[in-house]
Every structure is written in structure tokens, then in C-alpha cells.
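Field: COMPLEX_INPUT
Field: COMPONENT_COUNT = two
Field: RESIDUE_TOTAL = 600
Field: MODE = joint
Values follow.
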Amino acid sequence: MERVDEQRLLKRAKHGDPDAFAALYQAHVQAIFRYIASRVNDNHLAEDLTGDVFAKALQGLSQYQDQGKPFIAWLYRIAHARVVDHYRRSGRRGFDGDIDEDTILSDPLEIDEAMDRGQVAQLLRAAIADLTADQQQVVVLRFMEGHRIEVVAQLMGKQPNAIKALQHRALRTLAKRLEKAGLDIDSLFTGIS
Amino acid sequence: MIDRTPEFTSILHDCLDSVLAGERSIDECLQAYPQFASRLKPALQVALLTRDLDKAEMPASSVQALEIRLRGKMVAANQRAATTGDISSRRSAFAPLGKLAAMIAIVFLFALGTGGGAVAASASSLPGDPLYGLKRLWEAIILALSSLANNTDDVWLHLAQTRLDEAESLAGRGTVSSVVFADVYEATAQAILLVDEATLPQLTAFLENARSRIQNLPATAATAPLQRDLLLLVVPAADGKPGMPPSLQPPSLQPTMMSIESSGMDTFTPTVTPAPTETPTLALTSTATPAPSATQTVRPTDTPSATLTPTSRVPATATNSPQPSRTPTQTSTPSVTPTATWTALPLVTATFAGDGLPPTSAPVNRPTDDDQNGNVPVATIRHRATQAAAYATQTRQAELETEEPRP
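Field: COMPLEX_OUTPUT
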């Protein structure tokens, strides 16, 4: 969505135009859903949380100020907060500091050459969902959504160097988790989806 | 031992950019930075694995269901805002009486035994007529009760039609009024804000029809800005749907100037400020006598201008008010108290067109003071009676429009 179009829709939505808000919703709902789904690793839960995000956005729309950032940046922040809140309520790990690198995945997969690609993907998603909140955000925005470092920095409200550091730690942690799970990443690399 | 983490972080970033973009392979990066190969390789591989994960997608049915819920929330919030007047700081002249007061008023009217007849008689009254106050009172009752029947949007649409009919009828009498234009604007804005799927067709038809009717209304220097505001209000947005009104009060009556947003076009963000009470200038008023004689006419003081057309065709959205001039045109002077002042009315004259032709619009002499013998000229008597009637109307309306400043 062009920035100018987004600004016009935002102004109309702030004045109570349901169609304008619906247009913004349609433009961003899948990105927010993917983001949440990648972090919680549960599509049904992701749907619920996505609904919460947009309800929250609607509620706070009158106070929203365009500070030069795309609207989705604000949505990501709400989504991030919602996921963190979900983790707190559910008592799940993944938000309070770095993951203990000696932790074994709860359901280690039996590794063999015929490992199902879907199972590997499931393992990787589980590993992502177990990262810290900030690391999850970087992984999802950088590699799954394909944003550049500068954009990720803007969306997360951090400096690019901080994002690079988060990126580094996240990838290192994921690689170690996969190795601990017995995955031969080399052999899997070319055939995984 | 030198911590080469910052260096590695930067190299990793560069390699990631080029590998993810398909500009380099992993092996090429490892060859470029052999000292970091053991650390680079797994990081780059995991990044590609993550990129290639299937993208989760929310089912279309879930997307649609969520959209419906969100729309419902927004419409409900709009209705609440319209009822409490959050959109505009100006209290609506149609402020609901409250359900209890409405019930009491209905019982009172019918207990008198004449309420129904009086209300019916007032249906055709126009601003300035003796029964017009009763007509507006009845409308306020209906509006207050409309929330019970969940048809407030229908009521506002009907009121918008009624106000426009009144404006045309007054124009037929030779009267143009800022207050009338403002009332048309408010009722139309309310109808737009509250429209739902059921009333959208009727609203759209009304707005299409209203455009030419508004254009055909005579304009004066005082009413032209309001007429422009109205035309902008009824012009649909780019998608063909009614554009959102900036407020319930015409922008040209706003007391403070709207700020200009730097989006490459003339856009305005209305500022929410307490609206000073106003006593709009009535260009003309009807006499207090039951019916004007066939030979007595009342003329506007200003020469009506030609049919008004909008200066641009930008759709009337909540943010667009395509006025070439950035200076607000205020047609009235704000006053502190609602009843302390009232505007001296323009000329009223008794002219006699023996040939039955419509009178000219030339201004006439003001009524004179009492003559030397203490006799009051007929014209003066009528003028004063007219003034009194108009004062009563203005006072009532000004009282309704008085608003406490917001904290």
C-alpha cells in the first residue's frame, strides 16, 4: 500500500469510516497473522491473537499519531505486546532472557535420512517459538517477511546495529538447537521447505 | 584474545543480504571470509531454511469473519460518539431530550388533548413561523426515542430531507439563512455518520438529489461558504460512497483554523476546540403576522448571487476541504453569552407590486422612528414585530447551541 494512500485511509478511519479501517485491515492482516503464527507456532491461537491485535488497534486508533512510520509498524508493536502477554499468561518460556542453550527440545524428532520435510519445518518453527521475544521478531521480520535491516529497525524501534546483533544471536541459537536435535543441517539444507 | 564479534556481526549481515537476495551463494561467502567460515555457514543455512518455511496464512473465512466483527465495533463506536457529540464539540441543536423527558413530553402533549393537532399543524412550519419551535421539539422527541427502535439513522436522514425542504421553501419566500444551512449540514452529517448497509441506498439517493437542490439555492455573502461546505459534504468520495464529514458543524463556522497536513495536497485536520456561541446573522426573517399579504414581500438585503458551484471536485472526505483560501470565512461573530446579543435584522419593507410581478431586490429605506406626533409608521411596527419574532427564534437556537468549554 502506498504511503499516501495509507495516510488517507488512516485519516478517514480515525474519523470513524469503517470502510477505511477495513482497507487497512485487509492490507495487513496476513502479515500480522504470519508474524504471530511464527512466534506462537499455533495457527488457531494466532487467529485469536490477530483478532485481538486489530481490536486493540481499532480501540486506540483515535490516539494513533503518524510519526513517519508505516502503520504496520504500530500493528507489529501491538502484536509483539500481545504475544508477550500471551506467553506471560500461559507461563511459556521465550520472553525472559536468553534461552538456556543446554535445553533439549521437548519433543526431539527421530532423525534419519528420510526425515520428513514437514517435520524439519516443524522443528525449526518450534525452535523459533522458543527464542526470546526480540529474537523472534527479528527472525520473523527479517527472514520470513523479507524486510531489510533498516526496515526491521524502524518497525522494532531500535537501531540497525542492535538488530544485527539480535540477528546474529538468533541464528546462532537456532543453529545450535537444530544441531542438538540431531539435525545434519548440511544434508538438509537443499531439500527443506 | 580479540573479540571479533562486531566484525563478524557486520560480515554476517553483508553475507545475509547478498545470499538472501540471490546475489551470492553460501559457498562464495565462505570463500570470501574463510576465517569465519565455521560460524558463517550454519547461520546462513538457518537463515535460508527460515526464509523457505511455508508462510502461514489466515483462512479467508476467518479474515472475513474478523472484518465483520471489527466493522460492527466501529459502527457501534460511531453511534456512541454521535449520541454524545464526541465528533464535534458543538452541541447539536437536535440534542436528544433524554428518554424520560421525551416520555414526559409525549404524555403532557396528549394529556392536553391538543398536542396531536398542534404537532400536525407544525409539520409544515418553517424557521421563523410561530409553530416552528413545536416542530423542532417534536423532532427532538422522535430522535430521543429512535435509539429504542434502533432507527436513529433513518430519523437523521429524514431530518436532513426536512431541513433541505425548509431551506428551499424559505428560498421561495425570498429568505436565505446561515442557520438553515447549518442545520441542513448538521442533519446530513449525522445521517452520513450513522448510515448502515440498510440505509445506504436511501442516503446515496438523497445526497445525489441534494447536490442540485443545494446548488439551486440562492446564496449571499454570508451563506455562500456554508453552501460550499454543504456541497462538499454531499459529493461522494472516490469510491462512490458518502465521504466522512469533518464535523457536525460546517467547517466555515469553525472558530479556529484547521491545520494543514503536508501530504502534497490541501488537506485539513479539524481541531477540536470549544465552539464559541454564535448568533448567526439572519439575512432575513419572516414577519410575525400569520400570513403575508399578497402584496407584501420580504426581501433579502443582499443581492442573491448566481447559482453556486463548488470550486473543485475533491470528494468530501474527513480530511479534504479543498478551499483555495486558507483563511476561514466566518459568517458570524462569536459572542460570549448565548442570549446577550442578537443581530439586528436587515430591512423589511412593504412594497406593492401592482402588476403582480415579483419585487426587485433593491434595498429599501429603514423604518423610521416615531414621528413627531408619536405615531409609529406601519412599516416600523411590522419591523419591530418581525425583530421580536426573530429574536425569539435566535434566542432559542442560541440557547440550544451553547456549549460548555471542554476541559
